[in-house]
Amino acid sequence: MAEGTTGGEGLLFLTDEQLRKGIEAMFFAYRGFTADPDRILETMDYGRAHHRAIHFIHRSPGTTVSNLLAILGVTKQSLNRVLRSLIDDGLVEARVGKSDKRERNLYLTPKGQDLERQLSDAQRARMRAAYRAAGPAAVQGFRTVLEAMMDPEMRRQYQSLREGEK
Amino acid sequence: MAEGTTGGEGLLFLTDEQLRKGIEAMFFAYRGFTADPDRILETMDYGRAHHRAIHFIHRSPGTTVSNLLAILGVTKQSLNRVLRSLIDDGLVEARVGKSDKRERNLYLTPKGQDLERQLSDAQRARMRAAYRAAGPAAVQGFRTVLEAMMDPEMRRQYQSLREGEK
DNA sequence: TTGGAAAGTCAACAAGGCTGACGTAAATTC
DNA sequence: GAATTTACGTCAGCCTTGTTGACTTTCCAA
Fold first, then answer.
1. Which of residues 9-48 of A touch B (CB under 8 A)?
2. Which long-range contacts (CB under 8 A, 24 or more apart) does A129-135 make?
3. Residues B103-118 pLDDT 10s
């Protein structure tokens, strides 16, 4: 039985030691997860905060500032600083809302899409390598545990982003 | 076939869309992962950096400052600031090395152990809940993918911390 | 005995979080 | 039509946690 994760009928025996290993796995893996984009970003004047904004604008083109605030979980002032530099540098475009003119709909410009592609290519390459090394069953489990680890509100955000998936 | 992760004989069909979902899963799950300790820490004057130091000193009592630097991947000055406050507040003790008096061996005081327990109890509770909700097979896969996602150097750190495990 | 490693410290700086306050335009409600 | 609420932007100031660079002290080892 591998690493004592299970007993007879799917009951889990979870020692503190096993849980601690999961915790450290998250810590070290997250470092790897962000390492490649971080390397690209530091050559420009951007950081992880810019990456996150770019990612979610790419994911949901036309999203509003409020939506982004909810997803990223930061303050308006903090996001604004990041968004400001992306708009000034011509990576993001903010169009006045059509039905509600108070809103700003956010889009990546071609230049923004270029950077998005660079960043996500790097991140996907690592993810793909990890998936291949681990195999299909592991991938399924990986996603299942991560989803269970999210706060309910974040899980909703995550799942709503997955709409349109088969 | 669940979510198209596999074809016939274990070959993975990984669309960009699937990889992106894995990326977002990491993002949202990491937020959940740190949420509980963060809530505890903010009531005191500590942050995530203090938590990391406490965690690894607890994990390897008597570890040196250099070891900690290698594991945490920050600069000496950055770690020193955190360590300084923990020592001043009586959570960590730095004993002059026995064989090499330049080294400082780090230990948690009883007060430090109290905080460590609070933090790890909270973090383990979430991890345990996620593990239970996902099931044993998923847990196995979770750990496998995370390990594959680490940088080789970090993987060694991770695995060396696991020595002594059966 | 001298070179270099380990550790600590001081100073300065930046990114990216935060709070609070204030302004404006647009939408909504009364 | 007036008052209120909403969405967004911005100014000012603070904190944590990362960085670089320079310098000192201690002390092991060649």
1. 10, 12, 14, 16-17, 19-33, 35
2. A129/B148, A130/B145, A130/B148, A130/B149, A131/B12, A131/B14, A131/B19, A131/B22, A131/B145, A131/B148, A132/B12, A132/B14, A133/B148, A134/B141, A134/B144, A134/B145, A134/B147, A134/B148, A135/B10, A135/B12, A135/B144
3. 899 999 999 999 999 9
pLDDT on residue B8:
43
For strand C, which nucleotides have at least one atom less than 7 Å from a protein CB? Answer: 5-12, 15-21, 25-28
Identify the structural domains of chain B with CATH numbers, from first to last. Answer: 33-124 (1.10.10.10)
Q: Which of residues 80-119 of A touch B (CB under 8 A)?
A: none
Count other C-beta atoms under 10 Å from residue A52's C-beta: 19
Quick one: pLDDT band at residue B12, thresholds 50, 70, 90?
A: low
The residues facing B95 across adjacent strands are: B105
Q: Which helix (H) or strand (E) holds B105?
A: strand B104-108
Q: Which of A94, A68, A91 is nearest to A79 (CA)?
A: A68
Instruction: Report DSSP state, residue A166.
Output: -
Radius of gyration (C-alpha) of chain A in whole angstroms = 19
| pLDDT at position B157 | 87
Find the residue closest to C10 using CA and C1' atoms: B77
Torsion of CA B2, B17, A37, A153, to 10 degrees: -70
